[in-house]
Amino acid sequence: MKEKTKDGILSIVASAICIVIGLLVGLIILYCINAENALDGFMRIIKGGFYLMPKGMGSEITQTAPLIMTGLSVAFAFKTGLFNIGAAGQYTVGIFGALFCAIVLHLPWYVCLLASMVCGAIWGALPGIFKAYYNVNEVITAIMFNWVGLYLVNELMYTGIPGMYDQKTTRTYKLSSVSPESLIPNGGLNTLFKTNSTTIAIFIAILFAVLMYIILNKTTFGYELKACGFNRDAAKYGGINEKRSIVLSMTIAGALAGAGAGLYFLSGGSEWNPQVATALPAIGFNGIPIALLAMSNPLGVIFAAFFVAHISVGGAYLPTKYYQPEIADLIVAVIIYLCAFVTLFKGIILKALTKKKVQGEDESRTTGKEDEK
Length: 373
What we know:
Helix content: over 70%
Number of helices: 16
Number of strands: 2
Strand content: under 5%
Strand order of the largest sheet: 1-2
Distance between the termini: 41 Å
Structural class: mainly alpha
Largest sheet: 2 strands, antiparallel
């Protein structure tokens, strides 16, 4: 247990080093673009939602909820030995499930959220089935299903299902006007943060993260999934149904991504525009860096998602006369790239601590010998 705690602390310190280096790289880039305003721009990124209180924090919280869910989706699959690069597609199909039940069927928000989870789960299960029964790499099938899901959703929303698309706004109808009961309750957060989309979704997302942590670390089911991820053949010989574990793992990962879409769109955070939605949602792909930054720890995903949302919101406040908001994405990208060297950083820190400890012991021995004399 002590060794596990020590490794966890080393991981946190290593991740912090990645963040600091990434921020410094961002500062250098800002200076290269416009030295005069670099420090102001950098402080806006650092402040994030705090730069424009209270609305900025409300926006940050709204973005964090779906990021937690897509981060959990990727992290859960990582823990079970799978790479769920299909979180963006599962998120997109989840959008359809949530909005169809809300706009067309006018169902309560919790039923719409469940529908988004079911749609995401189905879209996640398909690559899992190909992986388990046909040994097709889940990365290949997941990427394919990403684009199939995007254009399928666009087709259904734009022409396939009447009553979902508003020709005037070129977006899906606003839930606040067509189905207020489908909106996730805000619990007074909209008033507190002076926004229209800050709801209890953030608490639901955190609850999901805690639940995933318990499942993975405290249940037999979670142990079987992780065992299958560590060594599929060994798990099979140990009596674990490895095919079932793979399919269930991808199904759960898909459900988490779909739930992220439900939490965001049912909060009124956005409407879907089929005419311009020719690219997969960035929130779906952002789950990958969040999972990497959190070392695939479900609880760590909460803080990693807050950090990514914080930097992204801060980037939106950059003066557009000098900088583009995408600089914030660049900083996150650098941090994630450095996460590949976390093991290296951990080794350097451990080596330094060990060296210091050995020097301390040598000094103690030398002092002891002198006292004896």
